[in-house]
Amino acid sequence: MSTLTKQTLSHLDWLESEAIHIMREVAGQCSNPVLLFSGGKDSICMLRLAEKAFRPGKFPFPLMHIDTGHNYKEVVAFRDKRAAELGERLIVRSVEDSMKRGTVVLKNENESRNKHQSVTLLEAIEEFGFDACIGGARRDEEKARAKERIMSFRDEFGQWDPKNQRPELWNLYNARSHKGENIRAFPISNWTEMDVWQYIEREKLELPSIYFAHTRPVVMRSGAIVPVNVPLMNGELTNLPKPGEEIIDLQVRFRTVGDISCTAPVESDADNVEKIVLETATTTITERGATRLDDQTSEASMEQRKKEGYF
């Protein structure tokens, strides 16, 4: 009599399996989906999940990044490199193009462009007729994200209503939409920051260098570490120090990356993934709590932006 050996799945195996299932549901139910890829750690995990879901074939969707024009150059360079390695189509649409069209108007030249990504994203959805956008948002990131379903319905204006969402019982997902409407799908919604880093460690995923400890010029501003004199892809400098601020060289790393104007690093000596996992396990500060400056202006800011079309 043969003995059957029961395979024990790890916590990461279950999360991976769920995420792959969600990606395949989107591909099966939607006619024209797109995977949002910024070059950040969460979207890097999303690419690996897409590989496991659809290889050896091509992805059943292109990749797309909404570039503020003020993204960290290390991340943008990594974005292009990774898309080329995979041989997948990368669509880039820029907030700066929306500014030229007059659909985005900054209050002043130093205003963060992060929230204005909503306009460019909605314009790109209309341009390409996408009926689903797959992204790497997680429920543990922020209160508003915790309210959202895995298949998050958006109306014909790209708006999200947290009080009017579809039930998701027994892992049954409804991605149906009418023309003009779309779905925002979050395959790693149930993951935490620790899960992401453990998955990166397990899968040996390459990352942009700014995720690891390095020395850069910063100032202390309103209790946060703010990088200054940051070079853009065109060679210009942004995030200039304010009068009277003292510039110091500090060893830091980024826990999350976005527009330069609103993404702050943390002091750290973690220069490899193993050290980052240990650091993540012991930190008492949330991922966005001290690193996303735009989230700190208002407790309801993220929810309001999501209602207006933000991812």
Can you walk through the features of this model?
The protein is of the alpha/beta class and 311 residues long. It folds into two domains: 192 residues, Rossmann fold (3-Layer(aba) Sandwich), CATH 3.40.50; 92 residues, no CATH class. It contains nine helices and twelve strands. The strands form three sheets. Strands 3-2-1-4-6-5 form a six-stranded mixed sheet, with helices on both faces. Strand 7 and strand 8 form a beta hairpin.
Number of strands: 12
* Poorly predicted spans: 296-300
At the fourth level of CATH, the homologous superfamily of the largest domain is HUPs
DSSP summary: helix tally = 9
What structural class is derived from the secondary structure elements?
Answer: alpha/beta
Fraction of helical residues: 25-40%
Query: Strand percentage, roughly?
Result: 15-25%
Main sheet summary: 6 strands, mixed
Please tag this protein with its features:
alpha/beta, 32% helix, four-stranded antiparallel beta sheet, Rossmann fold, single chain, 16% strand, 311 residues
What's this, in brief?
With 311 residues, this protein is of the alpha/beta class. 32% of the residues lie in helices and 16% in strands.
Give a topology summary.
Elements: H1 11-29, E1 33-36, H2 41-54, E2 63-67, H3 73-86, E3 90-94, H4 95-101, H5 117-128, E4 132-134, H6 143-146, E5 151-154, E6 182-185, H7 193-203, E7 214-221, E8 224-227, E9 230-231, E10 237-238, E11 248-253, E12 266-267, H8 273-282, H9 301-307
Parallel strand pairs: 1-2, 1-4, 2-3, 4-6
Antiparallel strand pairs: 5-6, 7-8, 7-11, 9-10, 11-12
